[in-house]
Amino acid sequence: MSKMSKKVKSAIYLQQYENVFACPICQSDVHIDNLSRMICDNHHAFDIAKQGYINLMNKPLTTNYHKQLFLARQQVLTETTLYQSVIQAIIKIIEQSVSKEHLTILDMGCGEGSHLVQICRGLSKSSVGIGIDISKEAIATATNHEDSMIWSVADIAQVPLKEHQADVVLNFLSPSNYAEFDRMMHEDGIIIKVVPNKDYLREIRDLLFQHTERENYSNQAVIDRFREKYRIMTQQTIRDVHEIDQVTLDTLIQMTPLTWSASPAQLERLTHSNMKQLTIDLDILIGKRYV
Ligand SMILES: C[S@@+](CC[C@H](N)C(=O)[O-])C[C@H]1O[C@@H](n2cnc3c(N)ncnc32)[C@H](O)[C@@H]1O
Ligand SMILES: [Zn+2]
Protein backbone atom coordinates (compact mmCIF):
# COMPACT_ATOMS: atom_id res chain seq x y z
CA MET A 1 0.00 0.00 0.00
CA SER A 2 1.37 3.45 -0.86
CA LYS A 3 2.23 5.75 2.01
CA MET A 4 -0.63 8.08 2.81
CA SER A 5 0.23 11.66 1.82
CA LYS A 6 0.58 14.29 4.52
CA LYS A 7 -2.35 16.14 3.01
CA VAL A 8 -4.71 13.14 3.19
CA LYS A 9 -3.53 12.28 6.71
CA SER A 10 -4.27 15.84 7.85
CA ALA A 11 -7.62 15.90 6.05
CA ILE A 12 -8.72 12.74 7.88
CA TYR A 13 -7.63 14.22 11.20
CA LEU A 14 -9.27 17.57 10.44
CA GLN A 15 -12.50 15.80 9.53
CA GLN A 16 -12.80 14.56 13.13
CA TYR A 17 -12.80 18.17 14.31
CA GLU A 18 -14.58 19.91 11.42
CA ASN A 19 -17.50 20.84 13.71
CA VAL A 20 -15.11 23.04 15.73
CA PHE A 21 -14.51 25.32 12.73
CA ALA A 22 -16.62 28.13 11.25
CA CYS A 23 -16.22 29.67 7.83
CA PRO A 24 -13.92 32.72 8.10
CA ILE A 25 -16.05 34.55 5.52
CA CYS A 26 -19.68 33.84 6.52
CA GLN A 27 -19.24 31.96 9.85
CA SER A 28 -21.45 29.07 8.73
CA ASP A 29 -20.67 25.39 9.35
CA VAL A 30 -17.90 23.75 7.37
CA HIS A 31 -16.97 20.22 6.36
CA ILE A 32 -14.01 18.50 4.75
CA ASP A 33 -14.70 17.79 1.12
CA ASN A 34 -13.02 14.99 -0.81
CA LEU A 35 -10.15 14.88 1.72
CA SER A 36 -8.70 17.92 -0.02
CA ARG A 37 -10.46 21.09 1.11
CA MET A 38 -12.69 22.65 3.71
CA ILE A 39 -15.97 23.99 2.38
CA CYS A 40 -18.80 25.90 4.10
CA ASP A 41 -22.58 25.71 3.68
CA ASN A 42 -22.33 28.76 1.39
CA HIS A 43 -19.63 27.12 -0.77
CA HIS A 44 -16.64 29.16 0.39
CA ALA A 45 -13.76 26.72 -0.07
CA PHE A 46 -10.24 26.52 1.43
CA ASP A 47 -7.66 24.05 0.14
CA ILE A 48 -5.61 21.88 2.45
CA ALA A 49 -1.96 22.47 1.51
CA LYS A 50 0.23 19.52 0.50
CA GLN A 51 2.15 19.94 3.77
CA GLY A 52 -1.13 19.34 5.62
CA TYR A 53 -2.06 22.79 6.95
CA ILE A 54 -5.12 24.85 6.12
CA ASN A 55 -5.07 28.51 5.16
CA LEU A 56 -8.19 30.19 6.54
CA MET A 57 -7.19 33.80 5.97
CA ASN A 58 -9.68 35.99 4.15
CA LYS A 59 -6.90 37.78 2.39
CA PRO A 60 -3.17 37.13 2.06
CA LEU A 61 -0.93 39.03 4.45
CA THR A 62 2.81 39.44 4.76
CA THR A 63 4.53 39.76 8.13
CA ASN A 64 7.99 40.70 9.36
CA TYR A 65 8.62 37.10 10.35
CA HIS A 66 10.37 35.01 7.69
CA LYS A 67 10.98 31.33 7.15
CA GLN A 68 14.57 31.37 8.45
CA LEU A 69 13.40 32.75 11.80
CA PHE A 70 10.89 29.92 12.23
CA LEU A 71 13.40 27.25 11.21
CA ALA A 72 15.89 28.67 13.72
CA ARG A 73 13.19 28.81 16.39
CA GLN A 74 12.26 25.20 15.68
CA GLN A 75 15.89 24.15 16.00
CA VAL A 76 16.35 25.92 19.34
CA LEU A 77 13.00 24.76 20.73
CA THR A 78 13.43 21.11 19.78
CA GLU A 79 17.19 20.65 20.21
CA THR A 80 17.97 22.61 23.37
CA THR A 81 16.49 22.61 26.86
CA LEU A 82 16.13 26.40 27.02
CA TYR A 83 12.32 26.34 27.21
CA GLN A 84 11.87 22.99 28.96
CA SER A 85 11.19 24.42 32.44
CA VAL A 86 8.42 26.62 31.12
CA ILE A 87 6.89 23.79 29.05
CA GLN A 88 6.93 21.44 32.05
CA ALA A 89 5.34 24.15 34.23
CA ILE A 90 2.56 24.66 31.66
CA ILE A 91 1.87 20.91 31.46
CA LYS A 92 1.54 20.78 35.25
CA ILE A 93 -0.79 23.80 35.30
CA ILE A 94 -3.08 22.22 32.68
CA GLU A 95 -3.14 18.87 34.49
CA GLN A 96 -4.09 20.60 37.75
CA SER A 97 -6.59 23.15 36.42
CA VAL A 98 -8.66 21.40 33.76
CA SER A 99 -10.70 18.39 34.78
CA LYS A 100 -11.99 17.25 31.36
CA GLU A 101 -10.53 14.06 29.94
CA HIS A 102 -10.13 15.17 26.31
CA LEU A 103 -8.76 18.66 25.95
CA THR A 104 -8.86 21.18 23.13
CA ILE A 105 -5.76 23.35 23.31
CA LEU A 106 -5.71 26.40 21.11
CA ASP A 107 -2.37 28.13 20.57
CA MET A 108 -2.89 31.72 19.43
CA GLY A 109 0.22 32.86 17.55
CA CYS A 110 1.78 29.39 17.67
CA GLY A 111 4.74 30.20 15.40
CA GLU A 112 6.50 27.02 14.28
CA GLY A 113 4.49 24.93 16.74
CA SER A 114 7.10 23.30 19.00
CA HIS A 115 5.58 24.53 22.27
CA LEU A 116 2.12 23.21 21.39
CA VAL A 117 3.52 19.86 20.25
CA GLN A 118 5.60 19.43 23.41
CA ILE A 119 2.69 20.37 25.67
CA CYS A 120 0.27 17.95 23.96
CA ARG A 121 2.91 15.19 24.10
CA GLY A 122 3.54 15.78 27.80
CA LEU A 123 -0.08 15.67 28.95
CA SER A 124 -1.40 12.49 30.49
CA LYS A 125 -4.87 13.28 29.03
CA SER A 126 -5.76 13.01 25.38
CA SER A 127 -5.92 16.29 23.51
CA VAL A 128 -6.24 18.01 20.20
CA GLY A 129 -3.85 20.86 19.54
CA ILE A 130 -4.93 23.64 17.21
CA GLY A 131 -2.17 26.06 16.26
CA ILE A 132 -3.08 29.38 14.67
CA ASP A 133 -0.65 31.86 13.23
CA ILE A 134 -0.96 34.66 10.73
CA SER A 135 2.30 33.71 9.05
CA LYS A 136 2.12 31.04 6.35
CA GLU A 137 5.85 30.41 6.81
CA ALA A 138 5.28 29.68 10.51
CA ILE A 139 2.45 27.26 9.87
CA ALA A 140 4.26 25.53 6.99
CA THR A 141 7.26 25.06 9.32
CA ALA A 142 4.95 23.67 12.04
CA THR A 143 3.99 20.81 9.73
CA ASN A 144 7.58 19.49 10.11
CA HIS A 145 6.33 18.02 13.40
CA GLU A 146 5.07 14.50 12.81
CA ASP A 147 2.42 14.62 15.54
CA SER A 148 -1.27 14.79 14.59
CA MET A 149 -2.15 18.45 15.06
CA ILE A 150 -4.28 21.03 13.32
CA TRP A 151 -2.23 23.87 11.85
CA SER A 152 -4.07 26.83 10.39
CA VAL A 153 -3.03 30.16 8.92
CA ALA A 154 -5.46 32.62 10.51
CA ASP A 155 -5.61 35.92 12.34
CA ILE A 156 -6.04 35.87 16.14
CA ALA A 157 -8.30 38.90 15.64
CA GLN A 158 -10.70 36.80 13.56
CA VAL A 159 -10.41 33.17 14.58
CA PRO A 160 -12.18 30.74 12.20
CA LEU A 161 -13.59 28.60 15.02
CA LYS A 162 -16.98 28.35 16.71
CA GLU A 163 -17.46 29.82 20.17
CA HIS A 164 -16.27 28.31 23.45
CA GLN A 165 -14.34 25.40 21.96
CA ALA A 166 -11.05 25.78 23.82
CA ASP A 167 -10.31 24.29 27.24
CA VAL A 168 -6.94 25.99 27.13
CA VAL A 169 -6.04 29.13 25.21
CA LEU A 170 -2.27 29.38 25.00
CA ASN A 171 -0.60 32.66 24.07
CA PHE A 172 3.18 32.30 24.15
CA LEU A 173 5.27 35.41 23.47
CA SER A 174 2.65 36.50 20.96
CA PRO A 175 0.21 39.38 20.59
CA SER A 176 -3.23 39.04 22.21
CA ASN A 177 -6.78 39.71 21.19
CA TYR A 178 -8.79 39.31 24.38
CA ALA A 179 -12.20 39.69 22.73
CA GLU A 180 -11.44 36.72 20.49
CA PHE A 181 -9.79 34.76 23.31
CA ASP A 182 -13.02 35.18 25.34
CA ARG A 183 -15.12 34.03 22.41
CA MET A 184 -12.90 30.95 22.04
CA MET A 185 -12.70 29.92 25.71
CA HIS A 186 -14.97 27.26 27.13
CA GLU A 187 -16.71 28.63 30.24
CA ASP A 188 -14.48 26.49 32.50
CA GLY A 189 -11.47 27.07 30.28
CA ILE A 190 -8.19 28.72 31.21
CA ILE A 191 -5.92 31.14 29.43
CA ILE A 192 -2.17 30.72 29.74
CA LYS A 193 -0.19 33.73 28.63
CA VAL A 194 3.61 33.65 28.60
CA VAL A 195 5.35 37.02 28.63
CA PRO A 196 9.01 37.99 28.78
CA ASN A 197 10.25 39.14 32.15
CA LYS A 198 12.95 41.77 32.65
CA ASP A 199 15.93 39.40 32.29
CA TYR A 200 14.64 37.44 29.28
CA LEU A 201 17.62 36.99 26.92
CA ARG A 202 19.41 39.50 29.16
CA GLU A 203 22.88 38.75 27.76
CA ILE A 204 21.76 39.47 24.16
CA ARG A 205 19.84 42.55 25.26
CA ASP A 206 22.90 43.89 27.14
CA LEU A 207 25.14 43.47 24.13
CA LEU A 208 22.73 45.08 21.69
CA PHE A 209 21.04 47.77 23.71
CA GLN A 210 23.39 48.83 26.51
CA HIS A 211 22.91 52.50 27.38
CA THR A 212 19.74 52.77 25.26
CA GLU A 213 16.13 52.82 26.39
CA ARG A 214 15.72 49.23 25.18
CA GLU A 215 18.25 47.96 27.69
CA ASN A 216 15.52 47.41 30.25
CA TYR A 217 12.12 45.91 29.74
CA SER A 218 9.10 45.75 32.02
CA ASN A 219 6.09 43.52 31.42
CA GLN A 220 3.97 45.33 34.03
CA ALA A 221 1.62 47.00 31.52
CA VAL A 222 0.91 43.64 29.88
CA ILE A 223 0.25 42.00 33.26
CA ASP A 224 -2.03 44.87 34.34
CA ARG A 225 -4.07 44.53 31.18
CA PHE A 226 -4.33 40.75 31.62
CA ARG A 227 -5.51 41.26 35.21
CA GLU A 228 -8.26 43.63 34.05
CA LYS A 229 -9.58 40.95 31.72
CA TYR A 230 -9.07 37.75 33.73
CA ARG A 231 -9.06 36.54 37.28
CA ILE A 232 -5.43 35.50 37.72
CA MET A 233 -5.39 32.07 39.37
CA THR A 234 -1.63 31.89 39.60
CA GLN A 235 1.41 33.59 38.21
CA GLN A 236 4.75 31.83 37.93
CA THR A 237 8.16 33.15 37.09
CA ILE A 238 10.54 30.76 35.39
CA ARG A 239 14.10 32.05 35.52
CA ASP A 240 17.04 29.84 34.52
CA VAL A 241 20.56 30.62 33.37
CA HIS A 242 21.64 28.15 30.67
CA GLU A 243 25.02 27.22 29.28
CA ILE A 244 25.03 27.77 25.51
CA ASP A 245 27.44 26.87 22.72
CA GLN A 246 28.31 28.84 19.58
CA VAL A 247 25.86 26.89 17.37
CA THR A 248 23.01 27.74 19.73
CA LEU A 249 24.10 31.38 19.87
CA ASP A 250 24.18 31.61 16.06
CA THR A 251 20.72 30.06 15.85
CA LEU A 252 19.37 32.31 18.61
CA ILE A 253 20.56 35.37 16.71
CA GLN A 254 18.39 34.25 13.80
CA MET A 255 15.37 33.35 15.89
CA THR A 256 14.75 36.42 18.00
CA PRO A 257 13.04 39.61 16.86
CA LEU A 258 15.45 41.38 19.27
CA THR A 259 18.10 41.28 16.54
CA TRP A 260 15.88 42.83 13.84
CA SER A 261 16.85 46.37 14.68
CA ALA A 262 20.53 45.58 15.23
CA SER A 263 23.11 47.07 12.89
CA PRO A 264 25.51 44.73 11.01
CA ALA A 265 28.29 45.85 13.40
CA GLN A 266 26.18 44.96 16.45
CA LEU A 267 25.31 41.56 14.98
CA GLU A 268 28.98 40.95 14.26
CA ARG A 269 29.81 41.82 17.89
CA LEU A 270 27.09 39.46 19.12
CA THR A 271 28.24 36.60 16.88
CA HIS A 272 31.83 36.95 18.10
CA SER A 273 30.96 37.67 21.71
CA ASN A 274 31.87 34.18 22.87
CA MET A 275 28.68 34.28 24.93
CA LYS A 276 28.51 31.21 27.13
CA GLN A 277 25.39 31.84 29.19
CA LEU A 278 21.87 32.88 28.46
CA THR A 279 19.02 33.79 30.80
CA ILE A 280 15.48 32.65 30.15
CA ASP A 281 13.16 34.73 32.35
CA LEU A 282 9.47 34.32 31.60
CA ASP A 283 6.25 34.99 33.49
CA ILE A 284 3.39 32.53 33.05
CA LEU A 285 -0.02 34.10 33.75
CA ILE A 286 -2.92 31.72 34.27
CA GLY A 287 -6.36 33.26 34.13
CA LYS A 288 -10.03 32.38 34.17
CA ARG A 289 -12.92 34.49 33.07
CA TYR A 290 -14.53 36.71 35.71
CA VAL A 291 -18.01 35.39 36.48
C1 LIG B 1 7.60 35.95 18.81
S1 LIG B 1 6.61 34.89 17.81
C2 LIG B 1 6.17 33.62 18.99
C3 LIG B 1 5.78 32.34 18.34
C4 LIG B 1 5.60 31.14 19.28
N1 LIG B 1 4.46 31.32 20.17
C5 LIG B 1 6.87 30.90 20.07
O1 LIG B 1 6.90 31.19 21.28
O2 LIG B 1 7.83 30.40 19.49
C6 LIG B 1 5.08 35.78 17.60
C7 LIG B 1 4.14 35.08 16.63
O3 LIG B 1 2.87 35.77 16.60
C8 LIG B 1 2.38 35.69 15.28
N2 LIG B 1 1.35 36.73 15.09
C9 LIG B 1 1.53 38.09 15.10
N3 LIG B 1 0.34 38.70 14.88
C10 LIG B 1 -0.59 37.72 14.72
C11 LIG B 1 -2.00 37.71 14.44
N4 LIG B 1 -2.68 38.85 14.29
N5 LIG B 1 -2.63 36.52 14.32
C12 LIG B 1 -1.94 35.34 14.45
N6 LIG B 1 -0.61 35.29 14.72
C13 LIG B 1 0.06 36.46 14.84
C14 LIG B 1 3.63 35.87 14.42
O4 LIG B 1 3.44 35.45 13.08
C15 LIG B 1 4.63 35.03 15.19
O5 LIG B 1 4.66 33.70 14.76
ZN1 LIG C 1 -18.68 30.68 4.11
Overview of this protein structure:
The chain has 10 helices and 11 strands. The chain is globular. Helix content is 33%, strand content 27%. It has 2 domains: 1-52, no CATH class; 53-289, Vaccinia Virus protein VP39 (Rossmann fold). The strands form 2 sheets. Strands 4-7-6-5-8-9-11-10 form an 8-stranded mixed β-sheet, sandwiched between helices. It has a 3-stranded antiparallel β-sheet with strand order 1-2-3, with helices on one face. It is α/β, with parallel strands linked by helices and 291 residues long. A hairpin with a 4-residue loop joins β2 (37-40) and β3 (45-47). α2 (67-79) packs across α9. The structure holds S-adenosylmethionine and zinc ion.
Give a quick precis of the structure.
This protein is 33% helix and 27% strand. With 291 residues, the chain is of the alpha/beta class.
CATH fold-level label of the largest domain: Rossmann fold
The percent range for strand residues is 25-35%
Mean pLDDT: 94
Overall structural domain count: 2
- Coarse structural class: alpha/beta
What hetero molecules are in the model? S-adenosylmethionine, zinc ion
CATH architecture of the largest domain: 3-Layer(aba) Sandwich
Spatial gap, N to C terminus: 54 Å
Largest sheet: 8 strands, mixed
- Provide the CATH top-level class of the largest domain: Alpha Beta
CATH superfamily of the largest domain: Vaccinia Virus protein VP39
Main-sheet strand order equals 4-7-6-5-8-9-11-10
Rounded radius of gyration (Å): 19 Å
Tell how many strands the DSSP assignment holds. Answer: 11
Order of helices and strands: HEEEEHHEHEHEEHEHHEHHE
